[in-house]
Amino acid sequence: MLEAAMELLFLGTGPAEAIPRMGHDDALCRDGMKPHSKSRRLRSAALLRFRETSILLDAGPDIGYQLASHRVQHIDAALLTHAHLDAAGGLRTLADWASTTGRVLPVYTELPTQKRYGTFSGLEYRFVKSGGTAKIGALSTRFLRMRHSLQPGFPTLGFRIGKLAYASDVASIPTQSLKHLQGVRTLVLDAAFWFAQKYRGHLTPDKSIKYAQWLGVEHLVLTQTGHTYPPHAEAERALKAYAREHAPHLKLTLAHDGLRIKQP
């Protein structure tokens, strides 16, 4: 009998400001306005499911629509990467959603999140430390420090769950976290800025691919992709061509809203 696989559903794969952007007439935003376009990206969030356990990763301003459009009716816990608006700005909406289920939803995060947003009926903060673990239903999660924000007060986490790791907001990965990522098979990683773009708070695809190669992962999934990218189909072709040349043994996927991946 086959062992059940984890499924990761991408609720949003975009940057701090969703795509398309109001008033923009660039190629990416024009493509994002087309029906069912993969260039249309809400703020980054995902839902991890394994057997009867469902874990929400981040809750930005789009979370109400994201949960409703995918008919999500059950969540065991939410994990927040950091306190920036695009990752935690939907906490009040998430609290309203939780209240309709008649239960209190645990939210695993760090103290700056509570300091910035306050407390909500229906949510229960559970403060975590980088390197620590938590058991949520059938899944064990390790919280890993990521370097991201250029401002103090926004410490950032990534998550390792079994052979899958998720780190949507990353400028670099500290050595200790890299050690904890050894053995990961599927890595979901920030690639917010297109090749040759310079911004200290995020990664570009080539840097993300280097991390994947160093860790020896089988499958790299790029997320948090932003406004410097070309339209999705064009970006996907260029990324796959780059991977064939520079990392031929690596499976590479450019995530889009609604994508589902499985990890045995």
Structure description:
By secondary structure, this protein is an alpha/beta fold. Helix content is 25%, strand content 27%. The mean pLDDT is 95.
Itemize the secondary structure elements and their pairings.
Elements: E1 6-12, H1 27-32, E2 45-50, E3 53-57, H2 63-69, E4 77-79, H3 85-88, H4 91-101, E5 105-109, H5 111-117, E6 123-127, E7 133-136, E8 139-146, E9 156-161, E10 164-167, H6 175-180, E11 186-190, H7 205-215, E12 219-223, H8 232-246, E13 251-254, E14 260-263
CATH fold-level assignment:
Metallo-beta-lactamase, Chain A
Structural class: alpha/beta
Name of the CATH superfamily = Ribonuclease Z/Hydroxyacylglutathione hydrolase-like
Principal-axis shape equals: globular
Number of helices: 8
Give the percentage of residues in beta strands.
25-35%
Instruction: Give me the strand/helix succession.
Output: EHEEHEHHEHEEEEEHEHEHEE
Task: Characterize the main sheet.
Answer: 7 strands, mixed
Oligomer: single chain
Q: How many β strands by DSSP? A: 14
Read across the widest sheet, the strand sequence of neighbours is 6-5-4-3-2-1-14
Short description:
The chain is built from 8 helices and 14 strands. By secondary structure, the protein is an alpha/beta fold.
Spell out the key features of this protein:
single chain; 264 residues; alpha/beta; Metallo-beta-lactamase, Chain A; 7-stranded mixed β-sheet; 14 strands
